[in-house]
Design goal:
641 residues, alpha/beta, 8-stranded mixed beta sheet, 40% helix, elongated, glutaminase activity, Glutamine-dependent NAD(+) synthetase, NAD_synthase
Length: 641
């Protein structure tokens, strides 16, 4: 089965006994078996796990070192039939020195040994009393567990094509961690065997360090630290297990647990390859020198169909409640500062904006109000124009008026029905013909009004269209697609709704808050077709092009992560389980790809607008695609699903 680029990894925290190598080997083997049952392909265990980290001067005793070597041999034999690679810690002699090592084994074979590069001697650490530094060791051989294996700090390994590197505890804290070079050498996963004791406040720093190193190296980073069983003579070990990917923590162990733990996650190697492909800074520093890559093929394990990672159904919406308000404030500032610069540059003190009573124009108006406040301009200089047409309902009409009045902007009402009917007569269109011409004529009439009023007032037309509409081409060319500055151009619909909700929650005026909340609850519609018999919205966008939460999910995974249709479908089924079935997701995924390619010409003529997130469709920087590019490759893949 295609694993879609996922690699299942584990940070394993066994219970240990100080100096009891047989017991430690048995607990390691038991956790390795559990990992194999869960489909793990690579599992990492704590630093010096064969002996325990806190052996002190016992580490210099030949009896203990011999026992550790024998335990490694027994572990290799005990796990030879397991379909996974293990990374375990042990003190190993080489030449006249002792090294703190990570031993990589699979299928009963020792694949290689990586020595710790940075040996600490400060605070609670004094490892240089026992260990030599492995920095600079390369292309050497070491005798271990009755086998001979490659020995070096620059080794990388490739299990079934998944290349990874290893560093040990203090290496991560160094100014230039070995993992930086390992990543540049090709490793997409870094494993760290650690035995870092707990101190107040240290854990928060550790989490940041692991996440940031995974971000800097564009890698997955799997960190494991010693836990229950280590000596508490002077220190306490909490059993940390962290799995991060490109700056995001995916999984985390329960600290201070007395139980053994197996922290498992699927890391996305395909995503990491895409990130490195698009990151020119990383490419410029990729190593051209040859380092030893040890390759090994192992049997396919018991991989689950569903990846063990959180799939966010709303990737554009901030997840962290604690930082959500801060993120919303930041987005508003980006939008308003972009508009402020454009107003200053054009020496405009007036803005013209069409207000429909829908989400997009509401957000654009809120941003424009913030901008005028920032520039200390009178809000009366914001000319809000509501332009009722054939499909305008009382609900949206009243909300548009109430919102403008509540925010203190200049209110104008310019109905478009008569103008459109005249236009229909001029071009010979029967008003009963509810074709694209019927709808688009209204959108273009509204844009003409906004542009002409802006000319009269010496103002700037603020665009309201959002990123989701641009992706789907759900905009009238030279109608609502056009403006003088589009403040919402990189804000997807799911985020628009969230930002308006945040604005409502922080609004002091009760009437304005109530209006904002009602706008949020109003179905998304261009209101270009007449209302139903009850005067309610008849033309609902999501009935026509599909749910925006699906399309935003598709857009993020396609553009930001580079996924193809099959992988997007898999992830969407997980993310929207219980909300949409496979058939529904597949239907709208086909719509997404078909429209995304066919509607590029609208994006090629996109007005200026500020970028607020990592996904944007500006033809000047973020997305450069010819308007006649074919979608056949993607649609053919969909045909096979």
């Amino acid at each position: 089965m295609d694993n879609f680029g996922f690699l299942k990894v584990a940070a394993a925290i066994p219970r240990l006994r100080v100096g009891d190598c047989t017991y430690n080997m048995e607990r390691t083997a038991a956790l390795a078996e559990e990992a194999a049952r869960r489909g793990v392909e690579i599992a990492v265990f704590p630093e010096l796990g064969m002996t325990a980290y806190t052996c002190g001067d016992l580490l210099l005793q030949p009896t203990l070192l011999d026992a550790a070597d024998e335990a490694l041999a027994r572990l290799a034999k005990a796990t030879r039939k397991l379909p996974l690679a293990l990374i375990v810690g042990a003190p190993l002699r080489h030449g006249s020195a002792l090294y703190n090592c990570a031993v990589v084994m699979a299928q009963g074979k020792i694949l290689g040994v990586v020595p710790k590069s940075y040996i600490p001697n400060y605070g609670e650490f004094y490892e240089d009393r026992w260990f030599a530094s492995g920095a600079g060791i390369s292309e050497e051989q070491i005798d271990v567990a009755g086998q001979q294996a490659d020995f070096g700090a620059d080794l990388t390994f490739a299990v079934n094509g998944a290349e990874f590197g290893v560093e040990i505890c203090e290496d991560l804290w160094a100014p230039i961690p070995p993992s930086t070079q390992l990543a540049l050498n090709g490793a997409r996963v870094i494993f760290n065997l650690s035995a870092s004791p707990e101190l107040a406040g240290k854990h928060a720093y550790l989490r940041q360090l692991v996440a940031q190193q995974s971000a800097r190296t564009l890698s997955a980073y799997v960190y494991v630290s010693a836990g229950s069983g280590e000596s508490s003579t002077d220190l306490t070990f909490a059993g940390n297990g962290l799995i991060a990917e490109n700056g995001t923590l995916l999984r985390e162990a329960e600290r201070f647990s007395t139980e053994e733990q197996l922290v498992v996650a699927d890391v996305d190697l395909q995503r990491l390859a895409f990130e490195r492909l698009r990151n020119t800074s990383f490419r410029q520093r990729e190593s051209s020198s040859e380092n030893t890559v040890i390759e090994m093929e192992i049997p396919e394990g018991l991989r689950a169909a569903v990846p063990e990672r959180d799939i966010d159904p709303l990737p554009f919406v901030p997840k962290d409640e604690g930082h959500r308000s801060e993120r919303c404030e930041e987005i508003f500032r980006i939008q308003s500062h972009g508009l402020a610069q454009r107003l200053r540059h054009t020496r405009c003190e007036r803005a013209v904006i069409g207000i429909s009573g829908g989400l997009d124009s509401t957000l654009a108006l809120l941003v424009t109000v913030r901008t005028f406040d920032l520039l200390e301009l009178d809000r009366a200089g914001i000319i809000g124009i509501t332009m009722p047409g054939f499909g305008t309902t009382d609900r949206t009409y009243n909300n548009a008026l109430e919102l403008m009045r509540g925010l203190g902007v200049t209110v104008r009402e310019i109905p478009i029905r008569d103008a459109c009917l005249q236009h229909f007569r001029d071009i010979g269109l029967d008003p009963a013909d509810r074709s694209a011409a019927y709808e688009n004529a209204q959108a273009r009439e509204r844009t003409q009004i906004l542009m002409d009023v802006a000319n009269m007032e010496g103002g700037l037309v603020v665009g309201t269209g959002d990123l989701s509409e641009l992706a789907l081409g759900w905009a009238t060319y030279n109608g609502d697609q056009m403006s003088m500055y589009g403040v919402n151009a990189s804000v997807p619909k799911t985020l628009v709704r969230h930002l308006v909700k945040w604005a409502a929650d922080t609004e002091h005026d009760p009437a304005t808050r109530a209006t904002l909340l009602d706008i949020i609850d109003t179905p998304v519609s261009p209101e270009l077709l007449p209302a139903d018999a009850d005067g309610k919205i008849a033309q609902k966008t999501e009935d026509l092009v599909g749910p925006y939460e699906l399309h935003d999910f598709f857009l993020y995974n396609f553009l930001r992560l580079g996924y193809g249709p099959e992988k997007i479908l898999l992830l969407a089924e997980v993310a929207f389980e219980g909300s949409y079935d496979r058939e529904t997701i597949l239907k709208w995924l086909r719509t997404f790809f078909r429209r995304f390619f066919a509607q590029q010409f609208k994006r090629s003529a996109l007005p200026d607008g500020p970028k607020v997130g990592s996904v944007a469709l500006s033809p000047r920087g973020d997305w450069r695609m010819p308007s006649d590019a074919s979608a056949e490759v993607w649609l053919r893949e969909l045909d096979t699903l």
